UniProtKB/TrEMBL annotation:
<dbReference type="Pfam" id="PF13609">
    <property type="entry name" value="Porin_4"/>
</dbReference>
<keyword id="KW-0732">Signal</keyword>
<keyword id="KW-1134">Transmembrane beta strand</keyword>
<dbReference type="GO" id="GO:0034220">
    <property type="term" value="P:monoatomic ion transmembrane transport"/>
</dbReference>
<keyword id="KW-0998">Cell outer membrane</keyword>
<comment type="subunit">
    <text>Homotrimer.</text>
</comment>
<keyword id="KW-0812">Transmembrane</keyword>
<dbReference type="InterPro" id="IPR001702">
    <property type="entry name" value="Porin_Gram-ve"/>
</dbReference>
<feature type="domain" description="Porin">
    <location>
        <begin position="8"/>
        <end position="334"/>
    </location>
</feature>
<dbReference type="InterPro" id="IPR033900">
    <property type="entry name" value="Gram_neg_porin_domain"/>
</dbReference>
<feature type="signal peptide">
    <location>
        <begin position="1"/>
        <end position="20"/>
    </location>
</feature>
<dbReference type="GO" id="GO:0015288">
    <property type="term" value="F:porin activity"/>
</dbReference>
<dbReference type="GO" id="GO:0009279">
    <property type="term" value="C:cell outer membrane"/>
</dbReference>
<keyword id="KW-0626">Porin</keyword>
<protein>
    <submittedName>
        <fullName>Putative porin</fullName>
    </submittedName>
</protein>
<dbReference type="InterPro" id="IPR002299">
    <property type="entry name" value="Porin_Neis"/>
</dbReference>
<dbReference type="GO" id="GO:0046930">
    <property type="term" value="C:pore complex"/>
</dbReference>
Length: 361
């Protein structure tokens, strides 16, 4: 009996030692709100939506200490809809948001492979947009932050360590076609952080060619996006600024191109976007007033410009739970087809109001 107890104790100690260097975390967001939309061909739409401020999700994040400052890491993350419990994508992909594995070094940086965000989108959501790409005021309503500009599969991403406030990120997405350049995507960002200043310069390059291996390569050109995103914290308020240039096919795509017409409106292949905004802490910094102004400047003959004004308020009920309310209106010019959406849904019209709650775990 004593030997059995000793053996169990030894195995338990060995098991603890083996797993002490590993860590797996289950995390997620549950976000739902009431949304009222106006101005589209569907008329007035009031609905319960999921992922208004942040997309509802559940994920698994893991690290293993390999020694010498090196760790193995992975993330598997799927999105779902709180309103009906289904996955938030049409093709029923399990881990549609993120799915990657890699290595992180304290001195050499981080290398990951799999389905990941582009550095261009990270600059928009993490640095430039006071609404953090959510609520009615989301910069995604006018900036081209959808499709593979947002995230892409088959990607290799390298992030440098932080050097005197500077860091970099490089993204390469394989097109996986018979021609190595067809369908590929390259994105990169350079970041600088110093006290209250946070600035990021990002670039996205999307090859639209297709190659089946049977027919000749169909050359459709390159889509380019170049973004400067800056925020500065004055303590009494945090100011935001973004400027973005879009050039080429698929550099811009309307989230809902048939919101106002039966036939889809062609997106511009030469345009500029700009944003100015502010976050103002209130109620002992548990609350936050958010304001932004965004414009889309079409440089083509059609001149389909648009402007968006947005106002929002978030209130931290606890460290994990936040209530929110927001309103935004878009002024479309010359047949432009921009819509007021949120973080997850693209919206049906040019005006939207939403109120809801977000809980993270």
């Amino acid at each position: 009996m004593k030997k059995t107890l000793i053996s169990v104790a030894v195995l338990g100690a060995m098991s603890s030692a083996a797993f002490a260097q590993s860590n797996v975390t289950i995390y997620g967001i549950v976000d739902a709100g009431i949304v009222s939309e106006r101005g589209g061909k569907l008329g007035n739409v009031t609905k319960l939506s999921s992922g208004v401020a942040n997309a509802s999700r559940i994920g698994f994040r893991g690290t293993e200490d390999l020694g010498g400052g090196l760790s193995a890491i992975f993330t598997l993350e799927t999105g779902y809809k709180v309103d009906d419990g289904t996955l938030d994508n049409t093709n029923n992909t399990l881990f549609n948001r993120q799915a990657f594995v890699g290595l992180r070094s304290n001195t050499a940086g981080t290398l990951t492979v799999g389905r990941q965000y582009t550095p261009w989108y990270n600059a928009l959501a993490q640095v430039g947009d006071p609404f953090a790409a959510g609520l009615a005021g989301s910069a995604k309503n006018l900036f081209p932050a959808n499709g593979i500009n947002l995230r892409n599969s088959n990607a290799v991403v390298y992030q440098t360590p932080l050097f005197n406030g500077f860091s970099g990120e490089v993204f390469y997405g394989f097109g996986e076609q018979s021609d190595s350049s067809a369908g590929r995507q390259v994105s990169a960002a350079l970041s600088y952080t110093n006290g209250p200043l946070n600035a990021r310069l990002a670039y996205n390059n999307r090859n639209n060619d297709t190659a089946t291996g049977i027919a000749p390569v169909v050359e459709r050109g390159i889509g380019h996006n170049s973004l400067l995103a800056v925020n500065y914290d004055f303590n009494v308020a945090k100011a935001f600024f973004m400027y973005n240039q879009n050039k080429g096919l698929n550099s811009v795509a309307y989230p809902n191109g048939t919101a106002y017409t039966t036939a889809a409106i062609a997106a511009s292949q030469d345009s500029r976007d700009g944003l100015v905004g502010v976050q103002i802490p209130v109620a002992g910094k548990t609350g936050k007033v958010i304001v932004s102004y965004i414009y889309a400047d079409d440089r083509e003959f059609a001149n389909r410009d648009a402007k968006q004004w947005a106002l929002g308020y978030t209130h931290d009920i606890s460290k994990r739970t936040t209530a929110y309310v927001s309103y935004a209106r878009i002024d479309n010019r010359n047949g432009a087809s921009y819509t007021v959406g949120g973080n997850t849904e693209v919206g049906t019209g040019d005006t939207a109001f939403n109120v809801g709650v977000r809980h993270s775990f």
